[in-house]
Amino acid sequence: xxxxxxxxxxxxxxxxxxxxxxxxxxxxxxxxxxxxxxxxxxxxxxxxxxxxxxxxxxxxxxxxxxxxxxxxxxxxxxxxxxxxxxxxxxxxxxxxxxxxxxxxxxxxxxxxxxxxxxxxxxxxxxxxxxxxxxxxxxxxxxxxxxxxxxxxxxxxxxxxxxxxxxxxxxxxxxxxxxxxxxxxxxxxxxxxxxxxxxxxxxxxxxxxxxxxxxxxxxxxxxxxxxxxxxxxxxxxxxxxxxxxxxxxxxxxxxxxxxxxxxxxxxxxxxxxxxxxxxxxxxxxxxxxxxxxxxxxxxxxxxxxxxxxxxxxxxxxxxxxxxxxxxxxxxxxxxxxxxxxxxxxxxxxxxxxxxxxxxxxxxxxxxxxxxxxxxxxxxxxxxxxxxxxxxxxxxxxxxxxxxxxxxxxxxxxxxxxxxxx
Length: 420
Ligand SMILES: [Zn+2]
What we know:
About 50% of the residues lie in helices and about 10% in strands. By secondary structure, it is of the alpha/beta class. Helix 10 crosses helix 11 (about 240-260), helix 15 (about 335-350) crosses helix 16 (about 370-395) and helix 16 (about 370-395) crosses helix 17. Bound molecules: zinc ion.
């Protein structure tokens, strides 16, 4: 070794050992983050009463086997930790009995969450405003024709389209499909959206990525109307290109109506559940025609699950004035240190458009919506703490700004977006 370098090397080693001793999250900041009562932008809250199946329009238990992420497997250590933290001296059944209708609110409190957007087909006793805000589903409205053909894409899609057909029948409430597209929009689509809004909905959710790709390119309504009339009258299986034009037109119409009614549009933007999910089709940049449509600039779009694995592209889309994203699901499936990397990137770009969320969901007996909410909330806070601590250490932000950013992500951004 050249002796001249020895002091530099020593200094370097010292720096490394100092860095090692620094905690990943600044302790004071961690305490401040823990004290902020969060708003969960996306959760499938389950009613206190047993047998509830309305926590999702497309429950994922209908799917063919696939390779589950470690976090969702029966023996997940995180699930065990969550069960212990939530029900330690007792049991889930005992706690449900003890709390009764207050059980869902009790689960939120354990995760440091003040209120949650409940992504559900319908709300119900024990999951009600103002603590729970409704986010119903709109996909069924954009597939009004015979769905045999798109269902053939995979066994999972066949099951999903059958579920969407059922939900659309519920939305139609026994009425036949109106004769023209304009009538369908005016007599079915708009009244459903208005009923949702009157029922307290703050956003409409699209799980479209489970049914097709997210490339909703602009179309001409006259073309869509031709397709609608043709296949409605003949009750025949629609041609794929024709049907796509109709779906795109309806999606744009619903998005515009959401803007008019003061609701955001939530779109599943992430690789999804199941071994047939079209990961490339869910690429967030496919949403660009929607975000760039001047007629839709009054509609706010939320990329639910933050676009993973295309997290950088999702971050770039935050430049659109009406684009937002949340960290749901990522914080359940991935380690906080992993999520913190792109969370930091997003916070440097547009911190007022990043939302805390869990994607709490009844995955299994051992990983219920309670455990998944608790894990995702814990991981989400740690990821946020890690990202902000790194930004402070690199001199990008002050401690005061870090606390401000934490408050924004955990609650203030959602309050502003939904006018809560
Ligand atoms: Zn979800």
